[in-house]
Amino acid sequence: MSNQEADVTRIAANRFRKLLAYVQASGATATKTGVKLSRSNNMSERDPKLVATVLEDFMIQSDFSGPIAVGTLAARWADVVGEEIAAHVSMGEFDAETKTLNLITDSTAWATQIRMLVPNVLQKIAEEIGSGQVLDLSVNGPKGPSWKHGKRRVPGRGPRDTYG
Known about the structure:
There is one protein chain. This protein is α+β, with helices and mostly antiparallel strands. It has two domains: 60 residues, no CATH class; 73 residues, 2-Layer Sandwich (GMP Synthetase, Chain A, domain 3), CATH 3.30.300. The protein is 48% helix and 13% strand. The chain is built from seven helices and five strands.
């Protein structure tokens, strides 16, 4: 087993242990469809709770798992895609409805290369934050400069050139 596979296994096992400890501490009961997040009889809603427990309840019930997972991905972007790619490709906005992550590149050449690597990048993202969190990648190159400066502007298409 390589170091990367060992790291992925270790991270997954650690996340599972934390989830199991949370479920056991919350007094939840197992059902056929999953875990029912209701407190057991010996715990009242008025009993003090740990802040971490309250926040995890809120995240699970509000379904913030996608944006939080993408935030985790942003923190580990260089580890996931590699130093060379991370130097030229940055994460943009994440659309939680369509589960699309926008990537912004330094040049059009890098945009073309990343478009060819989209399946590989999606696979690495799924290994890092779980499958189903990011379903599609949108790759955008750099934006050209704006020629709209000042109070007045002449209508027309402006100068022609390629940028990037």
